[in-house]
Write a structure and sequence with these properties.
259 residues, mainly beta, two-stranded parallel ribbon, 24% strand, LRR_5, Leu-rich_rpt
Length: 259
């Protein structure tokens, strides 16, 4: 059945509350100020409800919060000040909603954020600088959105990024400088309906271990596309749909095993 509403009286005198989870209910809205008396709250999760909007001050005062997950709801907008003051947040998940716009200042206070999952929304553009404050970011999912283009400088300050998924968008090409500063990247997922890749697009991905081309992609690959990944002692995996090929490269020789 599930709850249809969450009442503040249920949490009266619970000032030591550290974890709150009300996943999988039928809640349509969250009362403004519901969390204002929980300065010790560290984990907040309301996955898979029917929430369509959240008050801009809903998370005010949650200075101890490190994990916030509100995926699989019906949220259409997020205020530019939504995450103000959440300086200790390290894990944020707002995927699978109906958000059409992310303000450039949305993550300005999230300097400790390491994981950000915002895919499966209706965003057609991410502004340059939106991820700039998140210099500790290691995991980013911006997949299954509606982006028609993506700027080459979008991730220029996210040098610690290890995992990046940007599958199933609408852009048809990437500038060769897009991955220029992502030398720590180990896992990359990328695909579109039609996608052209430059020969040297992966040149700086010296630590890449896993590369996935998924979905209904019609990807144009040049024979030199993997040259930059062929270095002594390196090992990586790439995937086209369901077919996986693993590479082990020793002394610049590639030995191919098809699984």
């Amino acid at each position: 059945m599930g709850l249809e509403k969450f009442e503040s009286k249920w949490l009266e005198n619970k000032k030591n509350l550290r974890k709150l989870n009300f996943d999988g209910n039928k809640i349509e809205s969250i009362e403004a100020g519901l969390f204002k008396n929980f300065p010790k709250l560290e984990f907040l999760k309301f996955f898979s409800n029917s929430i369509s909007s959240i008050d801009s001050d809903l998370f005010n005062g949650l200075n101890s919060l490190h994990t916030l997950k509100s995926s699989s709801n019906n949220i259409t907008t997020i205020d530019s000040n939504q995450f103000n003051g959440l300086e200790n947040l390290i894990n944020l998940n707002f995927e699978s909603n109906k958000i059409s716009n992310f303000d450039v200042n949305l993550f300005k206070d999230l300097s400790k954020l390491t994981t950000l999952v915002i895919g499966y929304n209706k965003v057609n553009e991410l502004p340059i600088g939106i991820f700039g404050p998140c210099t500790e970011l290691e995991v980013l999912h911006i997949d299954f959105m509606e982006m028609a283009s993506i700027d080459s400088k979008l991730l220029e300050k996210n040098t610690k990024l290890r995992i990046l998924y940007m599958n199933e968008n609408n852009f048809e090409s990437l500038d060769k400088s897009f991955f220029e500063n992502l030398t720590s990247l180990k896992e990359l997922g990328i695909s579109c309906e039609k996608f052209d890749l430059n020969d040297d697009i992966f040149n700086n991905l010296v630590n890449l271990e896993k590369l996935e081309f998924n979905g209904k992609s019609r990807i144009v690959l040049n024979s030199k596309i993997f040259d930059s990944l062929s270095k002594e002692g390196a090992g990586f995996q790439y995937k086209f749909g369901r077919k996986i090929r693993r590479f082990k490269i020793f002394f610049f020789l590639i030995y191919l095993c098809l699984f």
